[in-house]
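Troubleshooting log. The previous structure file for this entry was overwritten by mistake, so regenerating from the original sequence record. Sequence copied from the archived sheet and checked twice against the printout by T.R.
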Amino acid sequence: MNKGNLLYAQSGGVTAVINATACAVIEACRRHRIRAYAARNGIIGALREELIDLAREDRAAIQALRHTPGGAFGSCRFKLKSLEQDRARYERLIEVFRAHEIRYFLYNGGNDSADTSLKIAQIAHVLGYPLHVIGVPKTVDNDLPVTDTCPGFGSVAKYTAVSVLEASLDVASMCESSTKVFVMEVMGRHAGWIAAAAGLAGKRADDPPHIILFPEVPFDEAAFLARVRATVERVGYCTVVVSEGLKNAQGQFLAEAGTRDAFGHTQLGGVGPLIAQLVKSKLGYKYHWAVPDYLQRSARHLASKVDALQAYAVGQAAVEYALAGRNAVMPVIRRISNKPFKWKIEPAPLTKIANIEKKLPKNFIAGDGFGITAAARTYFEPLIRGEDTPPYDATTGLPKYATLKRVLVRKKLPAYAIADK
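Regenerated output below.
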């Protein structure tokens, strides 16, 4: 029997497969006879001492997490600042950990979560509290360094490519007398991984998407409009995929809303309709636009099998790393080969991951800046392979997703209010 308990928490925007990671964590803890908790609403729940007792959850419900989208225990956009600025909050976390004998903390998130995990490991060391902190990768943006890919990305990539393919068939059917241009906006504030994945929908010249607008390529209005016109005249219609983080030549977001989220990131106000309206005003073409938004990251019915397997694998490895005494590391995915596609999980220090953003490589973007290269296809295609369809209810026709009890353990510390600073 290992000493101490484990706390798992989810952070940031959720994915179609983050609960597969949670499932792996819980099942691994049960195999090792480790008592496990989940923080309600991420780090906020840890600060408030709102800990879900995972021992109260049925085995079948935990297994169902493997195919359930969303964040089963609640997530949050709440960034802890530096140890100097936010020391009281870090010390509060250690108080909570001490009160519940938590010796292992697993934080499932992206860049900012890796930074938080690293700082918690540092403050625990300073305060002399024996704690093993493991950052667990997750982000649809695919922008974590070191790892080949991020769990959650493969599924959003599959959803994006399939959606572009299907919507383009619709537009092609109607373009003679109706819509000429279809614009789909996808997530990606600074890195165009999701936008690039849309390129998988097309295999031959003039297949959609005809134009991809990346955050890494400054928007050239004249070149864009010329490409749209030429495509419509040649093909009959034009499908455009645009990343939400598209910037102009001065480095400004085209759709900046003037506000920031809890992590300090610029809030973007919808570049898809902006691009569509530009086409209408300059070229006069009838258009439609779509912003999948949450749909692209929650579409568990269209999840990639590879993505689901990798999400489970990093959760399992995170527990093993913690129990083996590792600290301030993250289980990352290393690609061994493309043909056949092989990968493995290995540890990487959080110091090489926290607050570092991986951009789309230049050799993934076509020379004209509007498409992807063969190198990009080689990277992306294995990540969207296979289907991992959830079970469906024969009566309702809807997926059968997990329903949890989420019973909180009794608090041992005084109430704690989280005031904005």
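The longest strand covers residues 329-337. Archived copy saved in two places this time.
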